[in-house]
Each structure stands twice: as C-alpha cells, then as structure tokens.
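Morning!

As promised:
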Amino acid sequence: MKLWMLIAALAIMSVASLFIGVKDISPLDLFSMTTEQWQVMNISRIPRLVSILIAGVGMSIAGLIMQQLSRNKFVSPTTAGTDDSAKLGILVALLLFPAAATMHKMLIAFAFALAGTYVFMKFMDRLKFKDTIFIPLVGLMFGNVINAATTFFAYKNDMIQSITSWLQGSFSSVMSGRYELLYVSLPLLVVAYLYANKFTIAGMGEEFSVNLGLNHRLVVNIGLVIVALVSVVVILTIGTIPFLGLIIPNIVTLYVGDNLRKSLVHTALLGAAFVLACDILGRVIIYPYEVPIGLTVGVIGSVVFLYLLMRRKAYEA
Amino acid sequence: MIEVKGVSKAYGGKPVVDNVSLTIREGCVTSFIGPNGAGKSTLLSIISRLLQKDGGEVLIDGRDVAQWKSTELAKKISILKQSNHVNLRLTVRELVSFGRFPYSQGKLTKEDWSKVDEAIAYMDLSDLQHKFLDQLSGGQNQRAFIAMVIAQNTDYILLDEPLNNLDMKHSVQIMKVLRRLTEELGKTIIIVIHDINFASCYSDYIVALKDGRIVKEGPTETIIDSAVLQHIYDMDIPIELINGNRIGVYFK
C-alpha cells in the first residue's frame, strides 16, 4: 500500500463523514448552509470527525509502541492491562473525587494505567516461558483481574452502567465541548515520532540497546507514558476501541516492516482510515440509528485478528 | 587497551567469574575458550558493560567502564551476543544503519550513510541490503550483524559465540572476516568460541577459563597443547599438525 493511497482514502472518507447523519446536509449546501445546518456541522459532525481521526491515530500508535517495547506482536493496550487499569482509575476518580475536573480525573486514570502497564511489563520480564501467544494471554488475564475489581466496586456503588459505557466505545456522544481532551494526545504523538528510532532500537532488546549506548530504561519508560496517556485520553472521551492497537500495527508490519521511522506514519494513517471506515459503516448500516464503534471495530477487527493468527501459523509451518 | 583487574561476579552466592585479571593485546584476535559454565560469556558481558560486576575493575583506555558515558563507550567497544533472534522485520540496511546510532543519535548524516555503505560492501551484502532479516539464512543474518558492528566502527569488537548455529562454510567465512578486520583495519577482537580448532586456526592469543578462573593464557600454540587442554576440558585431546595448523582430534 502506498502512502498517497492511504492519504487519498482518508481524505475522501473524511469529507463523506461530514455529510452522513440524521440531519440531511449535502455537499451542495456547503455555501448556503442554514444556521441549523451550520450548528450541526460545528457542534457534532466536525468534532466527531476530529475525534475519530485522533483516536484512530492514537490507539494504533500506542499499540505499535507497545508491541515494539514488549517485543511481542500480540501485545497492545487491550492485552496488557492498560485499558483495564485506566478504567479502574476512572472509577476511583469518580468515587473518591466526584467533583474533580476532567483533567484531574484524567491524571488519576493515567496514574493507574501507567502503573498497570508497568506491572505487566515487569511481570513479563520475569516470565520464563515467553511464548508469543502466552504473553498476551497473561496480559488478558491480568486485565480481567483488574476488571473484576472495577466491576465489584462499580456494583457496590451502583455505577455498572457508566462502566459499561466506557467498555463500549462510541463516537455518537462526541460534541464540541466534550472531546477536546483528545488534543492532549497530539504532542505525545509528536514525541513518539521523534523517538521512533530509539523505540526501534529498544525493541531489539536491552543488550542490543546498551551496545549502541542507548538508555534502554529511559526509552521504555517514555514509551509507556505515551501509551498510558493516549489510552486514558481515548477511553475518557470515546471508550475502549478493541483490537485497534493490535491489528493496525500488524498489518503495517507486513508491508512496511518494523522500522518505526517508516512504519509510524503508515500506522497512524491506516489506524485513522480504519476507524473512520468502521464509523461510517456503523452509521449507515441501520440508518437512522447507529452501531457503536466498539462493536463494528470489534467484529471486523476480530476477523482480521483471526486471519493474522492463521497466517502466522502457516508461516511457521 | 582493555585491562581486567580482579573482576568477580556471583549469581546467588555461586561465583561465576572469580577474581579474573587479564590484559587484552591490541590488534589481535583473542579467543576465550573453556567448558560450559566456565564464565566466558559472563566475562565478555562484564567487559562490555552489559553486566554489572560485583568487584574489580575493567579499564578501557585507562578508564573504568562504569565511568565512561554509555554513548561514548559505544564508539569504543561493541558487542554482539549469541542470541540475535530478532523478531522484528528490518532490512539489512536498516540494521546496519543502527551501527551509526552512537554517532548520530538516529539522524544519520551523509558521512554516516557512507560508513553504512562501506560496511555493507565489506561484508558483501550489497545484493541483500534491501531484504528483511527474516528472509535471510542464519549465516547471512550473522554477516548483517557484523556489518552493523563494522559501521559502529569501534576499536574493540566483542563477539559471543559468533559461529553458533552456522555451518562450516559460513563459520569459515565469519572467521576470515574477523581476521581481515584485525589485519586490514587494526581492530582488536575478542570472541567466545567453543570449537578449539577454530580458535587454534584464527586467533593470536587464547584465554582458557574454567570454573570462573583463568586456567592458562598465552599465544595460541601454547594453549593448543594436549596437556593444557587435558587440564581445561578433562579429556584427552591429541594435537596433530596439519598444514601448519595445530588441530585437536577430540572426536573419539
């Protein structure tokens, strides 16, 4: 896949996305929009598009960094306890500091997500049996243990419903004034790009890094901070989008390779295009109602994931 | 110059390297030999700062490794470990370009790229430079990693079992390259090697270790000797002189 093809697809879908919705706005109206149409554009459609793009880019990059640093193609924020820890953090923030500003809630959730991911990485270092499939399974179990705690406290405090809403990622509630937190991830993505080479070297292992004079621990920690913060921001505004951080980097690896300098841009664009396509599909399929993004990405993503697993088997045989 | 002074390392109270002192000759190939568990690889890792030592000193050009800045040391000494199972999809050229990281921190200049080109040409990898590492054979992979070390352009090159999993042809190829590196580029090379005959044919100097201590060290011909080898390996190894090389016949 060429870069310009991705950019073109993304541009076309972005424009299309602006004109799909219950309120009928056609591209022809663009220069003669009524106040109402303009408001729909401004308050709902454009924020929705922006948040789709940022979330798609953010989660794919987070997955890519995670896979590089853990040296495992099947590790992502969803399979390393990051998402689950973040959710626990959000619950704690809601229970203990109900009056806190969103920014503060984000910081608490971030602390949890970072701690959870860190524990998983430490745990992984200790594991003797480093099978490619085994490690993400351990991550999933670890995530489920944390989830059990979240569910327990949520149940006790009658908050199961809000928990479920974070589980199910959705762009339908994105409106101007309620998605701007996503912008926090933009500077992080710039840092990720600047560190691309270092992440690639860190992905070759600690000894390899030390040989080249790279501060392995520092680079890993920076990577984990980026992953945790991006995940938290996306979960707080959109919810969890399963499989995204897993499949996008894996697809890009197949055709670009693992040199982050090269694969980062492809991963970002493909991630955004994939989420956008799923969102458009979700909006059209039972029009005028819509299917939440978590579901569309989940269904399509799991099929792609299965394909990747099968392909890997065939490759090994 | 590399000087090792009274270096020790223990795992769980059991000494793996026990008070080892050693001076590495410049511009030579030095081989570390000895039975499994003798502490050869551990010693190599300590010299190259991959492992922390419990006691003693490792001086590189007169300064202790711990006092060197890691990025500066990366321009002086390089190490390749035996387990280069890279599961990343990188091309040969990308891998070799990482050798320039200590100089460029990832932003390669024209000069860096010309060093990369030289290293690729030196290892005869020009045809393969755009292939992914996972598409190459074990021997080609090993050559790619050595090309990276050449691009890193350090005075000292340490290799932990560079012939591991290679067939005879590729083993000979690698050893010839190491000789050329000392003779043409004046590099100082230290390798950990199991095959005493490769050590005999290609090294200038041999250090024999056993149970974490140096049993004997000296020019190759003084170590490849039945009595000495008997002491190191606890087995009878007759030495035959074949085409001027001392060959240990240990198969039966």
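Chain A has one domain: 56-316.

Hope this helps with the figure draft.
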